[in-house]
Amino acid sequence: MSNILSLAKSYEKYFKIGAAVAAHNIESYEDVLREHFNSVTPENEMKYSETEPEEGRFTFERTDKIFSTARKLGIKVRAHAPVWHNQTGGWMYKDGDHDASPELIYQRIDAHIKALCERYNDDVYAWDVVNEAVTDEVEDGAQGDAAIYRSSEYFKLCGADFITAAFRAMDKYSPNAQLFYNDYNECDPKKRERIVRLIKRLKEQGCRIDGMGMQQHYFSCPDYDELKRSIEVYAQLGLRLHITELDVSIMAGFGHNVFPPSEEDIKRLKASSPEDIARVEDIYLKLFEIYRSYSDVIDCVTTWGVADDYTWMDGFVPHDNAPVVKQYPLLFDIHHAPKACVEKLINAAK
């Protein structure tokens, strides 16, 4: 382990430092979690496929493992994504051979959230209640809610009211935790405006929504000005902000937009030079400088993973022409040692 100070302790006056964790390898991260983190988010273990693969059949073994480890380490949990269009069994949308009615779907959401809250409330300080319900691109001719929300099975059967049902159920069963909406590309001006409309709708309906989860996955160079504008826009809605899924691809350090990647970009990406890997650290320093400057509204910064030996980015292809390569997108290396930027981040927090 490193002899430098704790990242989490150094940032106590600013915000919590969190990481997404997985049941299959959380034990290998216990030392680094104990030293540098004071929040954890289950990566997939609280989604429907893991917790309720069939209606009424709950499977909590993998989730329990994360919560047990978190309790042992004295770390509270940001619970993630009980309502998401992915990793949800087809049973949610069916009533026998017919489509489920909105009322049946709301009942199922309520029962699912009730089960999660009854089991885990004591350890949870915030929930990503609904994840990624806003569309990335507006289809030609789309109007009204169809120009705002993702055309998921939830939306096709319920319209936007499934979001309302989820927040009302979570408020009922977890009254002491903060409730968040969570999404990616949240700094894109057009999508940001759609997210704002979702949040305003919830507020107009009398739903409790405490915060906005800004995922912050970076595959291209961050637009720091848009990040600042986005923080201000969401904060002006009266929301607390969490950075929820932060990681930085090697491609983000290329200094330009890599979508679609050129042949030169692909060659460079495959090479993964030490210089390009180091640029990821430079981006973290700039991002944290911004996060610190808005610590009056930001309460937590969570990386999507703990260390570079296990990251979803290794298997993710952000564009058809991009190769699958080893990525180094986190603050700790493949041996779980802090990268050079961690000490710089700690010194910057003094």
From TrEMBL:
One molecular function GO term is: endo-1,4-beta-xylanase activity
UniProt source species: Ruminococcus albus (strain ATCC 27210 / DSM 20455 / JCM 14654 / NCDO 2250 / 7)
Top-level enzyme category: hydrolase
The UniProt similarity line reads: Belongs to the glycosyl hydrolase 10 (cellulase F) family.
- In short, the EC number is 3.2.1.8
The positions flagged as active site in the entry are 245 (nucleophile)
Record bears the keyword Hydrolase = yes
Q: Which GO terms describe its biological process?
A: xylan catabolic process
Q: Which PANTHER family match?
A: ENDO-1,4-BETA-XYLANASE A (PTHR31490:SF90), GLYCOSYL HYDROLASE (PTHR31490)
Q: Which Pfam families match?
A: Glyco_hydro_10
* Designated name of the protein: Beta-xylanase
Question: What is the reaction catalyzed?
Answer: Endohydrolysis of (1->4)-beta-D-xylosidic linkages in xylans
**Gene3D superfamilies documented for this protein:** Glycosidases
What are the entry keywords? Carbohydrate metabolism, Glycosidase, Hydrolase, Polysaccharide degradation, Xylan degradation
Query: Ranges for the GH10 domain?
Result: 1-348
